[in-house]
From TrEMBL:
The active site is at residue 49. Belongs to the aldo/keto reductase family. Residues 28-258 form the NADP-dependent oxidoreductase domain. Gene3D superfamilies: NADP-dependent oxidoreductase domain. It comes from Streptococcus merionis. This is Aldo/keto reductase family protein. The keyword NADP applies. Its EC number is 1.1.1.-.
């Protein structure tokens, strides 16, 4: 496993396993157990995913010391306030059945993010969280939050894949000492990404899959990546990216695939904010 060092000195695994859209508790527990046995040490969940309890059971079942694992969860929009974040954190900690969280994120840049961030700062100072960060924040969101609060986010988890490469946003985060982490490394399977001819050509050269090439590309860019699969073979396959390296020519070819295309929505658009705000009051 390779690691990155966050701006507070905490070491974070450079690749992780995510459980978004794995709501079945039995399946979720099984694949997280497989991921940990495979070698993953970063497990990423969220209160909105509805599977924190399954992740917690998998952690308990694993024969890996707790301190070797790096567990991330997130507070969603309906709890995006000072008191809400405190409540959400306590609930997530109980569902995961843990004494502390390694990384706790504001899931979306919507709602009272300043109030929620102050709650995270307090929980961090109390030692209940090893690092705090955000998700889906653009550079202006990051600047605003950082300039008017005490602690700069350690991580920003955003959509990054070969069709939406976010080089400018990554450059800003590097400048500010914020680690970029990606979700949607496979573009959610859209645009026939697994059969992209450029990726297939590179994959054939190394006897790897296109998925492995995409994850290796992120690793070499200094991006912490998350992969997800409910298939145990693919869970193991997606971890097998440390025995080859892409050349500069390979990286340049992949860079040419960028079209700044999102598979979700632009968080700076009013309609996106309205859509996300509609989740307030809903339970997960």
């Amino acid at each position: 496993m390779e690691y990155v060092t966050l701006n507070n000195g905490v070491k974070m695994p450079a690749v992780g396993f995510g459980v978004f859209q794995i709501p079945d508790p039995v399946v979720c527990q099984e694949v997280v157990e497989t991921a940990i046995k495979t070698g993953y040490r970063l497990i990423d969940t969220a209160e909105a995913y509805g599977n924190e309890e399954a992740v917690g059971r998998a952690i308990k079942a694993a024969s890996v010391p707790r301190e070797e694992l790096f567990i991330t969860t997130k507070v969603f929009i309906q709890h995006m306030s000072y008191e809400g974040a405190k409540t959400a954190f306590a609930a997530s900690l109980a569902k995961l059945d843990l004494d502390y969280i390694d990384l706790y994120l504001l899931h979306q840049p919507v709602g009272d993010t300043f109030g929620a961030w102050r709650a995270l700062e307090e929980l961090y100072k109390e030692g209940k969280i090893k690092a705090i960060g955000v998700s889906n924040f653009k550079s202006d969101h990051l600047a605003n939050l950082s300039l008017f609060n005490e602690i700069i986010p350690a991580v920003n988890q955003i959509e990054v894949h070969v069709f939406n490469q976010k080089e400018d946003e990554q450059a800003y985060m590097v400048e500010k000492g914020i680690q970029i982490e990606s979700w949607g490394a496979f573009a959610e399977g859209q645009f026939d990404v697994f059969n992209n001819p450029v990726l297939k050509e590179i994959a054939a050269k190394y006897d790897k899959t296109t998925a492995q090439v995409m994850l290796r590309w992120q690793l070499q860019r200094g991006i912490v990546s998350l992969s997800k699969s409910a298939n145990s073979d693919r869970v193991r396959q997606n971890f097998d990216i440390f025995d080859f390296a892409l050349t500069e020519a390979d990286m340049s070819k992949i860079a040419e695939l960028n079209t700044d295309t999102t598979v979700f929505a632009d968080h700076s658009q009013a309609k996106t904010v309205e859509l996300l705000a509609s989740f307030v009051g809903k339970t997960f």
